[in-house]
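Before relying on records like the one below, remember that each one covers exactly one chain. Contacts with other chains, cofactors or solvent are not represented anywhere in the record.
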Amino acid sequence: MSDYRTAAAYIRVSTDDQTELSPDSQLSAIRDYASNHAYAIPEEHIYVDEGISGRTAAKRPAFNRMIAAAKDTGHPFDCILVWKFSRFARNQEESVVYKAMLRKDRVEVISVSEPLIEGPFGGLIERILEWMDEYYSIRLSGEVKRSMTLNAQRGVRQIAPPFGYRLESRDGKRVMLPEPREAALVREMFRRFLAGEGTYAIARRMNSMDARTHRGNPFEQRTVEYILRNPVYVGKMRWTPTGRVRRDFSNPDTIVTDAGHEPLIDSGTWNTAQERIKARKEMWGRKARPACELKDWLGGVVRCAACGTTLIFTKPHYFKCNNYVRGRCRESQHIRVDLLHDALLGRLRDDLSGARALDYQIFTESNGGGEAEIRRLKAALDALERKLSRVRDSYAAGVDSLEEYRKYRADIDKEKARLLERLTDFKTRQDSKQKMSLLRERLKQAVGILESPDIGKELKNSVLRSMVASCEFDKKRMTLQIVYRVVL
Protein backbone atom coordinates (compact mmCIF):
# COMPACT_ATOMS: atom_id res chain seq x y z
CA MET A 1 0.00 0.00 0.00
CA SER A 2 3.05 2.26 0.33
CA ASP A 3 3.11 2.77 -3.48
CA TYR A 4 -0.47 4.06 -3.38
CA ARG A 5 -1.40 7.71 -3.14
CA THR A 6 -4.45 8.83 -1.15
CA ALA A 7 -7.46 10.26 -2.95
CA ALA A 8 -10.85 11.66 -2.01
CA ALA A 9 -14.01 10.82 -3.98
CA TYR A 10 -16.65 13.48 -4.62
CA ILE A 11 -20.09 12.39 -5.83
CA ARG A 12 -23.06 14.58 -6.68
CA VAL A 13 -26.49 13.95 -8.17
CA SER A 14 -29.04 16.65 -8.87
CA THR A 15 -32.22 14.58 -9.08
CA ASP A 16 -33.44 11.14 -8.09
CA ASP A 17 -34.20 10.06 -11.66
CA GLN A 18 -30.67 10.34 -13.04
CA THR A 19 -30.00 6.60 -12.75
CA GLU A 20 -26.85 6.75 -14.90
CA LEU A 21 -25.44 9.27 -12.42
CA SER A 22 -26.52 7.52 -9.24
CA PRO A 23 -24.13 7.70 -6.28
CA ASP A 24 -23.35 3.97 -6.52
CA SER A 25 -22.54 4.10 -10.23
CA GLN A 26 -20.34 7.17 -9.79
CA LEU A 27 -18.49 5.60 -6.86
CA SER A 28 -18.04 2.34 -8.79
CA ALA A 29 -16.42 4.19 -11.72
CA ILE A 30 -14.21 6.17 -9.32
CA ARG A 31 -13.07 3.01 -7.48
CA ASP A 32 -12.20 1.31 -10.78
CA TYR A 33 -10.11 4.32 -11.80
CA ALA A 34 -8.43 4.44 -8.40
CA SER A 35 -7.55 0.76 -8.53
CA ASN A 36 -6.03 1.10 -12.01
CA HIS A 37 -4.04 4.22 -11.15
CA ALA A 38 -2.70 3.29 -7.70
CA TYR A 39 -4.99 5.47 -5.58
CA ALA A 40 -6.41 4.49 -2.19
CA ILE A 41 -9.74 6.04 -1.15
CA PRO A 42 -10.37 6.00 2.64
CA GLU A 43 -14.05 5.70 3.58
CA GLU A 44 -13.89 8.95 5.58
CA HIS A 45 -12.96 10.80 2.39
CA ILE A 46 -15.92 9.79 0.28
CA TYR A 47 -18.09 12.90 -0.01
CA VAL A 48 -21.65 12.73 -1.38
CA ASP A 49 -24.15 15.51 -2.14
CA GLU A 50 -27.51 14.05 -3.22
CA GLY A 51 -30.31 16.00 -4.88
CA ILE A 52 -28.24 19.21 -4.92
CA SER A 53 -27.47 21.52 -7.84
CA GLY A 54 -23.86 22.18 -8.78
CA ARG A 55 -24.44 25.84 -9.70
CA THR A 56 -23.28 27.15 -6.29
CA ALA A 57 -20.83 25.62 -3.83
CA ALA A 58 -22.40 27.34 -0.80
CA LYS A 59 -25.38 24.97 -0.92
CA ARG A 60 -23.28 21.76 -1.01
CA PRO A 61 -22.35 20.67 2.53
CA ALA A 62 -20.28 17.60 1.56
CA PHE A 63 -18.35 19.68 -1.00
CA ASN A 64 -17.49 22.28 1.63
CA ARG A 65 -16.36 19.58 4.10
CA MET A 66 -14.10 18.15 1.39
CA ILE A 67 -12.54 21.54 0.61
CA ALA A 68 -11.92 22.14 4.32
CA ALA A 69 -10.26 18.71 4.63
CA ALA A 70 -8.07 19.36 1.58
CA LYS A 71 -6.75 22.56 3.18
CA ASP A 72 -5.91 20.80 6.44
CA THR A 73 -2.20 20.95 7.33
CA GLY A 74 -2.13 17.16 7.59
CA HIS A 75 -2.64 16.92 3.79
CA PRO A 76 -5.07 13.95 4.06
CA PHE A 77 -5.30 13.29 0.29
CA ASP A 78 -3.41 14.14 -2.91
CA CYS A 79 -6.28 14.45 -5.35
CA ILE A 80 -10.05 14.53 -5.70
CA LEU A 81 -11.62 12.00 -8.06
CA VAL A 82 -14.93 12.83 -9.73
CA TRP A 83 -16.98 10.96 -12.33
CA LYS A 84 -17.09 14.09 -14.52
CA PHE A 85 -15.91 17.66 -14.06
CA SER A 86 -19.59 18.68 -14.06
CA ARG A 87 -19.94 16.80 -10.75
CA PHE A 88 -17.31 19.10 -9.20
CA ALA A 89 -19.07 22.29 -10.39
CA ARG A 90 -21.37 23.59 -13.13
CA ASN A 91 -20.31 27.17 -12.50
CA GLN A 92 -17.06 27.85 -14.39
CA GLU A 93 -16.04 30.76 -12.18
CA GLU A 94 -16.40 28.71 -8.98
CA SER A 95 -14.67 25.74 -10.62
CA VAL A 96 -11.61 27.82 -11.52
CA VAL A 97 -11.45 29.42 -8.05
CA TYR A 98 -11.71 26.16 -6.11
CA LYS A 99 -9.27 24.29 -8.36
CA ALA A 100 -6.73 27.10 -8.01
CA MET A 101 -7.23 27.02 -4.23
CA LEU A 102 -6.67 23.26 -4.17
CA ARG A 103 -3.52 23.45 -6.32
CA LYS A 104 -1.93 25.70 -3.69
CA ASP A 105 -2.34 22.78 -1.29
CA ARG A 106 -1.01 20.33 -3.94
CA VAL A 107 -4.42 18.74 -4.52
CA GLU A 108 -5.61 18.20 -8.08
CA VAL A 109 -9.07 17.40 -9.40
CA ILE A 110 -9.30 14.43 -11.78
CA SER A 111 -12.28 13.39 -13.90
CA VAL A 112 -12.21 9.59 -14.25
CA SER A 113 -14.25 9.67 -17.49
CA GLU A 114 -12.65 12.73 -19.14
CA PRO A 115 -8.87 12.11 -19.34
CA LEU A 116 -6.80 15.19 -20.22
CA ILE A 117 -3.51 15.38 -22.02
CA GLU A 118 -0.48 16.89 -20.32
CA GLY A 119 0.56 20.48 -20.93
CA PRO A 120 -1.28 23.71 -21.79
CA PHE A 121 -3.65 22.02 -24.23
CA GLY A 122 -4.92 19.87 -21.39
CA GLY A 123 -5.76 22.98 -19.40
CA LEU A 124 -7.50 24.50 -22.42
CA ILE A 125 -9.62 21.39 -22.90
CA GLU A 126 -10.51 21.46 -19.19
CA ARG A 127 -11.70 25.08 -19.49
CA ILE A 128 -13.78 24.16 -22.55
CA LEU A 129 -15.38 21.27 -20.65
CA GLU A 130 -16.20 23.60 -17.74
CA TRP A 131 -17.73 26.15 -20.10
CA MET A 132 -19.84 23.45 -21.79
CA ASP A 133 -21.04 22.18 -18.39
CA GLU A 134 -22.12 25.67 -17.32
CA TYR A 135 -23.80 26.34 -20.68
CA TYR A 136 -25.65 23.02 -20.45
CA SER A 137 -26.79 23.83 -16.90
CA ILE A 138 -28.10 27.28 -17.88
CA ARG A 139 -29.81 25.95 -21.02
CA LEU A 140 -31.35 23.03 -19.11
CA SER A 141 -32.61 25.40 -16.42
CA GLY A 142 -34.27 27.57 -19.07
CA GLU A 143 -35.88 24.61 -20.80
CA VAL A 144 -37.16 23.19 -17.52
CA LYS A 145 -38.60 26.58 -16.51
CA ARG A 146 -40.28 26.99 -19.90
CA SER A 147 -41.77 23.50 -19.68
CA MET A 148 -42.99 24.12 -16.13
CA THR A 149 -44.53 27.45 -17.18
CA LEU A 150 -46.49 25.73 -19.95
CA ASN A 151 -47.57 23.00 -17.53
CA ALA A 152 -48.71 25.62 -15.01
CA GLN A 153 -50.77 27.39 -17.68
CA ARG A 154 -52.48 24.06 -18.45
CA GLY A 155 -53.14 23.24 -14.77
CA VAL A 156 -50.70 20.30 -14.61
CA ARG A 157 -49.52 19.38 -11.10
CA GLN A 158 -45.80 20.07 -10.56
CA ILE A 159 -45.47 19.95 -6.78
CA ALA A 160 -45.97 17.55 -3.91
CA PRO A 161 -49.61 17.35 -2.75
CA PRO A 162 -50.48 20.03 -0.19
CA PHE A 163 -52.10 19.37 3.17
CA GLY A 164 -55.56 17.92 2.51
CA TYR A 165 -54.56 15.86 -0.53
CA ARG A 166 -52.71 12.66 -1.45
CA LEU A 167 -51.34 11.22 -4.69
CA GLU A 168 -52.77 8.07 -6.22
CA SER A 169 -52.03 6.19 -9.46
CA ARG A 170 -54.96 5.95 -11.86
CA ASP A 171 -54.74 4.74 -15.46
CA GLY A 172 -50.99 5.15 -15.40
CA LYS A 173 -51.15 8.72 -14.12
CA ARG A 174 -50.52 10.24 -10.71
CA VAL A 175 -53.64 12.17 -9.67
CA MET A 176 -54.29 14.32 -6.59
CA LEU A 177 -57.20 13.20 -4.42
CA PRO A 178 -58.60 14.49 -1.09
CA GLU A 179 -57.20 12.82 2.01
CA PRO A 180 -60.36 12.46 4.15
CA ARG A 181 -59.07 13.46 7.60
CA GLU A 182 -56.86 16.29 6.34
CA ALA A 183 -59.59 17.55 3.99
CA ALA A 184 -61.99 17.76 6.94
CA LEU A 185 -59.39 19.78 8.88
CA VAL A 186 -58.92 22.18 5.95
CA ARG A 187 -62.68 22.79 5.80
CA GLU A 188 -62.70 23.29 9.58
CA MET A 189 -59.93 25.90 9.31
CA PHE A 190 -61.89 27.90 6.75
CA ARG A 191 -65.09 27.57 8.80
CA ARG A 192 -63.47 28.77 12.02
CA PHE A 193 -61.62 31.60 10.27
CA LEU A 194 -64.83 32.92 8.73
CA ALA A 195 -66.54 32.55 12.12
CA GLY A 196 -64.05 35.05 13.55
CA GLU A 197 -61.20 32.92 14.93
CA GLY A 198 -57.64 34.07 14.29
CA THR A 199 -54.84 32.03 12.74
CA TYR A 200 -53.12 31.65 16.13
CA ALA A 201 -56.21 30.12 17.74
CA ILE A 202 -56.75 27.83 14.74
CA ALA A 203 -53.11 26.65 14.83
CA ARG A 204 -53.42 25.80 18.53
CA ARG A 205 -56.64 23.89 17.86
CA MET A 206 -54.98 21.87 15.06
CA ASN A 207 -52.07 20.97 17.35
CA SER A 208 -54.45 19.96 20.15
CA MET A 209 -55.95 17.47 17.66
CA ASP A 210 -52.45 16.05 16.97
CA ALA A 211 -52.58 17.30 13.38
CA ARG A 212 -49.21 17.67 11.62
CA THR A 213 -48.10 19.11 8.31
CA HIS A 214 -46.84 16.83 5.55
CA ARG A 215 -43.32 17.49 6.83
CA GLY A 216 -44.32 16.30 10.29
CA ASN A 217 -44.22 19.76 11.86
CA PRO A 218 -46.79 21.26 14.24
CA PHE A 219 -49.07 23.99 12.92
CA GLU A 220 -48.09 27.66 13.27
CA GLN A 221 -49.92 30.89 12.43
CA ARG A 222 -48.12 31.12 9.10
CA THR A 223 -49.01 27.49 8.30
CA VAL A 224 -52.70 28.24 8.74
CA GLU A 225 -52.46 31.46 6.74
CA TYR A 226 -50.70 29.65 3.90
CA ILE A 227 -53.52 27.11 3.74
CA LEU A 228 -56.18 29.84 3.84
CA ARG A 229 -54.47 31.61 0.93
CA ASN A 230 -53.74 28.56 -1.22
CA PRO A 231 -56.06 28.41 -4.28
CA VAL A 232 -55.45 24.67 -4.57
CA TYR A 233 -58.46 24.18 -2.27
CA VAL A 234 -60.84 25.60 -4.91
CA GLY A 235 -59.47 23.36 -7.65
CA LYS A 236 -56.68 25.61 -8.95
CA MET A 237 -52.91 25.47 -9.25
CA ARG A 238 -50.53 28.31 -8.35
CA TRP A 239 -46.96 28.52 -9.61
CA THR A 240 -44.42 31.33 -10.01
CA PRO A 241 -41.86 30.84 -12.83
CA THR A 242 -39.44 33.38 -11.34
CA GLY A 243 -38.76 31.07 -8.37
CA ARG A 244 -39.39 31.35 -4.64
CA VAL A 245 -41.40 34.42 -3.70
CA ARG A 246 -41.36 33.96 0.08
CA ARG A 247 -45.12 34.19 0.55
CA ASP A 248 -45.56 37.10 -1.83
CA PHE A 249 -49.08 36.00 -2.72
CA SER A 250 -49.67 39.02 -4.98
CA ASN A 251 -46.57 38.52 -7.15
CA PRO A 252 -47.58 39.64 -10.66
CA ASP A 253 -45.62 36.76 -12.26
CA THR A 254 -47.61 34.10 -10.40
CA ILE A 255 -49.74 31.84 -12.58
CA VAL A 256 -53.07 30.69 -11.15
CA THR A 257 -55.07 28.40 -13.40
CA ASP A 258 -57.82 25.78 -13.21
CA ALA A 259 -56.67 22.23 -12.48
CA GLY A 260 -58.42 18.90 -12.62
CA HIS A 261 -58.45 17.89 -8.95
CA GLU A 262 -61.45 17.96 -6.63
CA PRO A 263 -61.85 21.23 -4.65
CA LEU A 264 -62.28 21.08 -0.87
CA ILE A 265 -64.22 24.33 -0.50
CA ASP A 266 -66.48 26.40 -2.76
CA SER A 267 -65.39 29.63 -4.44
CA GLY A 268 -67.72 31.72 -2.25
CA THR A 269 -66.02 30.51 0.93
CA TRP A 270 -62.61 31.08 -0.64
CA ASN A 271 -63.38 34.65 -1.77
CA THR A 272 -64.85 35.58 1.63
CA ALA A 273 -61.76 34.23 3.37
CA GLN A 274 -59.47 36.28 1.10
CA GLU A 275 -61.44 39.43 1.83
CA ARG A 276 -61.17 38.85 5.57
CA ILE A 277 -57.42 38.22 5.28
CA LYS A 278 -57.00 41.51 3.38
CA ALA A 279 -59.04 43.35 5.98
CA ARG A 280 -56.94 41.88 8.81
CA LYS A 281 -53.70 42.81 7.04
CA GLU A 282 -55.00 46.33 6.57
CA MET A 283 -56.15 46.71 10.15
CA TRP A 284 -53.11 45.17 11.82
CA GLY A 285 -49.59 46.20 10.89
CA ARG A 286 -46.66 43.83 10.93
CA LYS A 287 -46.25 42.20 14.37
CA ALA A 288 -48.98 44.41 15.79
CA ARG A 289 -51.64 41.73 16.33
CA PRO A 290 -51.41 40.26 19.87
CA ALA A 291 -51.04 36.48 20.00
CA CYS A 292 -53.30 36.23 23.03
CA GLU A 293 -55.97 38.28 24.80
CA LEU A 294 -56.06 42.03 24.11
CA LYS A 295 -54.91 43.79 27.29
CA ASP A 296 -55.94 47.35 26.44
CA TRP A 297 -58.00 49.03 23.73
CA LEU A 298 -54.85 50.77 22.48
CA GLY A 299 -53.06 47.44 22.01
CA GLY A 300 -51.15 47.26 18.72
CA VAL A 301 -52.22 50.78 17.65
CA VAL A 302 -49.45 53.10 18.89
CA ARG A 303 -45.91 52.70 17.59
CA CYS A 304 -42.51 53.96 18.68
CA ALA A 305 -41.41 57.04 16.71
CA ALA A 306 -37.76 55.93 16.93
CA CYS A 307 -37.91 52.35 15.62
CA GLY A 308 -41.48 51.86 14.39
CA THR A 309 -42.38 48.85 16.50
CA THR A 310 -45.55 48.75 18.60
CA LEU A 311 -45.84 49.88 22.20
CA ILE A 312 -46.82 46.96 24.39
CA PHE A 313 -48.79 46.90 27.65
CA THR A 314 -46.48 46.10 30.58
CA LYS A 315 -47.16 45.74 34.27
CA PRO A 316 -48.23 47.53 36.31
CA HIS A 317 -49.73 50.25 34.06
CA TYR A 318 -47.36 51.33 31.29
CA PHE A 319 -47.02 51.14 27.52
CA LYS A 320 -43.42 50.57 26.42
CA CYS A 321 -41.59 50.18 23.10
CA ASN A 322 -41.41 46.45 22.37
CA ASN A 323 -37.90 46.74 20.92
CA TYR A 324 -36.67 48.77 23.91
CA VAL A 325 -37.90 46.05 26.27
CA ARG A 326 -35.78 43.57 24.25
CA GLY A 327 -32.76 45.87 24.08
CA ARG A 328 -33.09 46.61 20.35
CA CYS A 329 -34.21 50.28 20.56
CA ARG A 330 -32.22 53.05 22.17
CA GLU A 331 -35.18 55.30 22.94
CA SER A 332 -37.09 54.62 26.16
CA GLN A 333 -40.53 55.26 24.69
CA HIS A 334 -42.73 54.57 27.68
CA ILE A 335 -45.85 56.28 29.03
CA ARG A 336 -48.54 55.54 31.62
CA VAL A 337 -51.66 53.91 30.19
CA ASP A 338 -54.02 56.59 31.50
CA LEU A 339 -51.86 59.38 30.12
CA LEU A 340 -51.74 57.73 26.69
CA HIS A 341 -55.53 57.32 26.75
CA ASP A 342 -56.00 60.99 27.59
CA ALA A 343 -53.44 62.12 25.00
CA LEU A 344 -55.02 60.14 22.17
CA LEU A 345 -58.60 61.15 23.02
CA GLY A 346 -57.50 64.78 23.34
CA ARG A 347 -55.85 64.63 19.92
CA LEU A 348 -58.99 63.11 18.38
CA ARG A 349 -61.18 65.85 19.88
CA ASP A 350 -58.85 68.57 18.58
CA ASP A 351 -58.90 67.05 15.09
CA LEU A 352 -62.67 66.77 15.25
CA SER A 353 -62.95 70.49 16.03
CA GLY A 354 -61.25 71.38 12.74
CA ALA A 355 -58.40 73.21 14.48
CA ARG A 356 -55.77 71.65 12.23
CA ALA A 357 -55.43 70.01 8.83
CA LEU A 358 -55.64 66.23 9.03
CA ASP A 359 -53.13 63.76 7.65
CA TYR A 360 -54.85 60.84 5.97
CA GLN A 361 -54.43 57.94 3.56
CA ILE A 362 -56.97 56.66 1.08
CA PHE A 363 -58.03 53.03 1.55
CA THR A 364 -60.49 50.73 -0.17
CA GLU A 365 -62.70 48.42 1.84
CA SER A 366 -60.61 45.30 1.26
CA ASN A 367 -57.12 46.47 0.28
CA GLY A 368 -54.25 48.58 1.51
CA GLY A 369 -53.72 52.31 1.08
CA GLY A 370 -54.95 54.18 -1.97
CA GLU A 371 -51.53 54.45 -3.63
CA ALA A 372 -50.95 50.77 -2.91
CA GLU A 373 -54.30 49.95 -4.56
CA ILE A 374 -53.35 51.89 -7.68
CA ARG A 375 -50.00 50.09 -7.80
CA ARG A 376 -51.76 46.76 -7.35
CA LEU A 377 -54.16 47.46 -10.23
CA LYS A 378 -51.32 48.55 -12.50
CA ALA A 379 -49.27 45.47 -11.53
CA ALA A 380 -52.28 43.27 -12.30
CA LEU A 381 -52.58 44.88 -15.75
CA ASP A 382 -48.85 44.28 -16.37
CA ALA A 383 -49.29 40.67 -15.29
CA LEU A 384 -52.12 40.26 -17.79
CA GLU A 385 -49.85 41.53 -20.57
CA ARG A 386 -47.22 38.95 -19.60
CA LYS A 387 -49.88 36.26 -19.42
CA LEU A 388 -51.06 37.21 -22.91
CA SER A 389 -47.48 36.94 -24.14
CA ARG A 390 -47.20 33.43 -22.67
CA VAL A 391 -50.50 32.45 -24.30
CA ARG A 392 -49.15 33.63 -27.67
CA ASP A 393 -45.96 31.60 -27.09
CA SER A 394 -48.01 28.50 -26.25
CA TYR A 395 -50.02 28.90 -29.47
CA ALA A 396 -46.89 29.52 -31.55
CA ALA A 397 -45.22 26.43 -30.06
CA GLY A 398 -48.22 24.28 -30.94
CA VAL A 399 -49.10 23.59 -27.31
CA ASP A 400 -52.54 25.26 -27.58
CA SER A 401 -54.98 25.06 -30.45
CA LEU A 402 -56.41 28.14 -32.18
CA GLU A 403 -59.68 27.63 -30.31
CA GLU A 404 -57.86 27.49 -26.96
CA TYR A 405 -55.84 30.58 -27.87
CA ARG A 406 -59.00 32.54 -28.72
CA LYS A 407 -60.64 31.48 -25.44
CA TYR A 408 -57.61 32.49 -23.35
CA ARG A 409 -57.33 35.78 -25.26
CA ALA A 410 -61.02 36.61 -24.67
CA ASP A 411 -60.72 35.87 -20.93
CA ILE A 412 -57.64 38.08 -20.65
CA ASP A 413 -59.25 40.95 -22.57
CA LYS A 414 -62.34 40.73 -20.35
CA GLU A 415 -60.26 40.87 -17.16
CA LYS A 416 -58.15 43.72 -18.57
CA ALA A 417 -61.28 45.79 -19.28
CA ARG A 418 -62.55 45.15 -15.74
CA LEU A 419 -59.25 46.29 -14.18
CA LEU A 420 -59.07 49.42 -16.35
CA GLU A 421 -62.60 50.36 -15.36
CA ARG A 422 -61.79 49.82 -11.68
CA LEU A 423 -58.59 51.88 -11.96
CA THR A 424 -60.43 54.79 -13.60
CA ASP A 425 -63.25 54.65 -11.05
CA PHE A 426 -60.83 54.51 -8.12
CA LYS A 427 -58.83 57.53 -9.31
CA THR A 428 -62.08 59.49 -9.72
CA ARG A 429 -63.25 58.65 -6.21
CA GLN A 430 -59.81 59.54 -4.83
CA ASP A 431 -60.27 63.11 -6.05
CA SER A 432 -63.68 63.43 -4.42
CA LYS A 433 -64.22 66.42 -2.09
CA GLN A 434 -66.32 64.21 0.16
CA LYS A 435 -63.37 62.50 1.85
CA MET A 436 -62.77 65.13 4.55
CA SER A 437 -66.41 65.34 5.60
CA LEU A 438 -66.51 61.54 5.60
CA LEU A 439 -63.45 61.41 7.83
CA ARG A 440 -64.80 63.93 10.36
CA GLU A 441 -68.14 62.15 10.55
CA ARG A 442 -66.44 58.83 11.31
CA LEU A 443 -64.12 60.57 13.77
CA LYS A 444 -67.13 61.94 15.67
CA GLN A 445 -68.67 58.47 15.95
CA ALA A 446 -65.35 56.92 17.04
CA VAL A 447 -64.76 59.46 19.82
CA GLY A 448 -68.21 58.73 21.25
CA ILE A 449 -67.43 54.99 21.34
CA LEU A 450 -63.94 55.40 22.80
CA GLU A 451 -65.22 57.69 25.62
CA SER A 452 -68.00 55.29 26.63
CA PRO A 453 -67.26 53.25 29.78
CA ASP A 454 -69.87 50.66 28.76
CA ILE A 455 -68.10 49.49 25.58
CA GLY A 456 -65.51 46.73 25.76
CA LYS A 457 -61.84 47.06 24.81
CA GLU A 458 -62.13 44.71 21.79
CA LEU A 459 -64.78 46.85 20.10
CA LYS A 460 -62.95 50.07 20.96
CA ASN A 461 -59.76 48.66 19.49
CA SER A 462 -61.57 47.59 16.32
CA VAL A 463 -63.20 51.01 15.91
CA LEU A 464 -59.90 52.81 16.46
CA ARG A 465 -58.15 50.62 13.88
CA SER A 466 -60.90 51.26 11.36
CA MET A 467 -60.08 54.97 11.32
CA VAL A 468 -56.37 55.20 12.22
CA ALA A 469 -53.83 54.12 9.61
CA SER A 470 -50.82 54.89 11.85
CA CYS A 471 -50.13 56.44 15.24
CA GLU A 472 -46.60 57.21 16.51
CA PHE A 473 -45.60 58.31 20.02
CA ASP A 474 -42.49 60.44 20.51
CA LYS A 475 -41.57 60.77 24.19
CA LYS A 476 -38.87 63.40 23.61
CA ARG A 477 -41.37 65.78 22.04
CA MET A 478 -44.37 64.31 23.90
CA THR A 479 -46.35 64.16 20.67
CA LEU A 480 -48.72 61.75 18.93
CA GLN A 481 -48.51 61.72 15.13
CA ILE A 482 -51.77 60.31 13.70
CA VAL A 483 -52.53 59.47 10.07
CA TYR A 484 -56.18 58.73 9.51
CA ARG A 485 -57.76 56.12 7.26
CA VAL A 486 -60.28 57.31 4.68
CA VAL A 487 -62.19 54.33 3.28
CA LEU A 488 -63.79 54.81 -0.13
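Confidence is low (pLDDT under 50) at residues 16-20, 364-369.
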